[in-house]
Amino acid sequence: MPEPPASDIPAQLPHRYPFLLVDRVLEREPGVRVVVEKLVTIGEPYLQGHVEGRPRVPGVLLVEMLAQAGGFLEADSLHGATIFLAGVPEARFQAPARPGDRLRLEVRVEGAYAGLLKLQGAVSCEGRELCTASLLVRRL
């Protein structure tokens, strides 16, 4: 059975406004998988002036959201360590995220080697897959 969700995001991630890009942890199996949520609002700073008249979340920020979600995989066991995004071997973008979207971000551990964790992540909205990515993260 999955562990209850982490409730205090600022205590678990070093990111702060305006670069904290996740809102809520929905499910978490430490070291295995995590599901987080992001509600995209029109007030997001990165939407101001981005594709005037048709704002959308830049793809690179969808990947950053997945990396931040990955920070909850082992957050309790990091003992003050920080993880950082070390590489993105693959990313695919199928559809844009727009204001009003409730994004579901799921990240799973695929393996560990040479001090890196390999993660597989997906961003979806109402059953539509928006983005998938393989991420490499390293502990500091």
Task: Please describe what this structure looks like.
The structure is a single chain. The longest helix has 12 residues, at 59-70. This protein has helices at 9-12, 59-70, and strands spanning 24-29, 33-39, 83-93, 102-113, 116-125, 128-139. Strands 1-2-4-5-6-3 form a 6-stranded antiparallel beta sheet, with helices on one face. The chain has 140 residues and is mainly beta. The protein has one domain: Roll (Thiol Ester Dehydrase, Chain A), CATH 3.10.129. The chain is built from 2 helices and 6 strands; from the N terminus they run H-E-E-H-E-E-E-E.
Task: Using brief descriptors, characterize the structure shown.
11% helix; 140 residues; Thiol Ester Dehydrase, Chain A; six-stranded antiparallel β-sheet; mainly beta
Give a brief rundown of this model:
The protein has 140 residues and is mainly beta. The protein has helices at 9-12, 59-70, and strands at residues 24-29, 33-39, 83-93, 102-113, 116-125, 128-139. The model has no long low-confidence stretch (mean pLDDT 87).
